[in-house]
Amino acid sequence: MSEHHENLPVFNHPAPVKLLFAVFISLIALTVLTVLTAGSGMPSAFAFPVAMMIATAKAFLVCAFFMHMWWDKGFNVLAFLSSLFFVALFIGMTLTDTDAYQNDIDLYPRNAETLTSPVE
Q1: Between the CA of residue 104 and those of 31, 95, 111, 112, what are the distances in Å?
Q2: Nearest-CA neighbor of 24 among 16, 36, 35, 13?
């Protein structure tokens, strides 16, 4: 079985090891920054978008360098980004419908004593 692998080309990593360690250190620093953001006591309306921006930066670093998309063909990057676009589109379309049923939610009884069973 070892003779089968002798014909294969030697794999050359497209990224230098120093770059990979720099990305790793950046990911660790961004993780620490995320934890500090969560425990900083800032209002959640501000902390959540900051945490999401940090998470987006971390996802970019992982995709670009550890998944080798920085050096990959443009079509693969386009396929990946279009899938992210469609996920965001579907979630966004779902979130636009949240106000449609708010009146029904507000009218629903809050405690179990006021609930009536359809079969009596």
Answers
A1: 41, 17, 15, 17
A2: 16
Counting runs of H as helices and runs of E as strands, what totals does the chain give? Answer: 5, 0
Among 19, 51, 17, which Cα is nearest to 33's? 51
- Which token pair is 50? 């900051």
Nearest alpha carbon to residue 28 among 58, 59, 60, 66: 58
Q: What is the per-residue pLDDT across 18-52, written as a single tens digit (0 to 9) for each? A: 998 999 999 999 999 999 988 888 887 888 888 88
d(CA 87, CA 64): 19
Question: What value does the mean pLDDT of the chain take?
Answer: 80
Helix (H, G, I), strand (E, B) or coil at 91: helix
